[in-house]
Amino acid sequence: MGERAVLVAVVTREEVSLEELARLADTAGAKVVGTVVQRRERLDPATLVGSGKLTLIGQLVEDQKADVVIFDQEITPAQERNLSAALGVRVLDRTALILDIFALHAESSEGRLQVELAQLKYLLPRLRGRGVEMSRLGGGIGTRGPGETQLETDRRRILRRVAKLRSDLDDVERTRLVKRSRRSAAPVVSLVGYTNAGKSSLLNALTGSSVLVQDQLFATLDPSTRRCLLSGGRELLITDTVGFVRRLPHQLVEAFRSTLELVAESDVLVHLVDMSDGVMERHIDAVRGVLDEIGAGDIPELLVGTKLDLGMGDFQRLHPGAPMVSVVTGEGVDELGELIWSTVASGFEEVEVLVPFGAEVERLHRVTEVLEEEYRQEGVRMRVRAPKAEAQRLQQYVPTIRSPEGRQRPSR
Description:
The protein is built from 14 helices and 14 strands.
């Protein structure tokens, strides 16, 4: 049986719902046995909540035999110690909870390295002991202590491990870059959205693959890229990415930066929105905030409503003309594939080339939009619209003609 958890939120300005925190707790295996919300002008610097509310939380913990108290806000190491001492149980914040879920779901070697790096960076300022002052030499009255305390030893061990993890992740990134340079030149599309918006389900529907689908937050951590074949032999590479949440911990954004860079290198982002969610507009803003943070805010975005079988809510009214799909019934899925291609193709560059017979012709039919095609004795003259990277590669096939001065120049 899972741990029993009490959830706490302190509201200063904006409305805060504990529904998402409850789902996070459930994903981590905890059973929510109570919730407490307090409205305050300012957070208490020692315990976040006021003394009266702290007493109420302590009574709730005792009555419900709770094992842990989880705060929706990020708490400092000092606040964590104060709260744990006052309540007599472990105290976590939202960041620690999300890190725990990531550790639970990380399966690839890279994912485990990234999660461990984020956990250690979170742990570093929270090392137990008398405090950071005990690791300093001659810092003032009451701070002079031995030069090598257990705390300092632990800190050094963690810092060495952090350096090793960063080195290992750099090696993984170099390997990924080599593989990426060898992959198909098909346009790259990333599925992004709030966690549990239906990205993995849509990836399976578009590509015929069998990526894990679970009704849980952060069920997918490791990105999955699959080939999507459209009519006429056209091809897309579609990547399912980690889901975003409100206030995604900065430790995770930094640790997963190499993975999230896959998003930043996409030709188009397909931003999925769960239309059955009552706070979908807030989720849209949260996703776009993370995209800006990782340098993907300027990539063309196609907003798509998902779970049409559960209703469309206010999505159609707020986003008129945006496509809507249901993976359960299949409604709109085939049309979405064509719409994604059209969105990708709108950013293509036009180029005219003379390519040899055979594989190159077949390749251009898969990864570009062919406008004209003429078979000649010396090869196939084609006018195509291609992704930027492919257009650059095709410069080797741009035919040349001689100017009156005898210089070669590209033909138009």
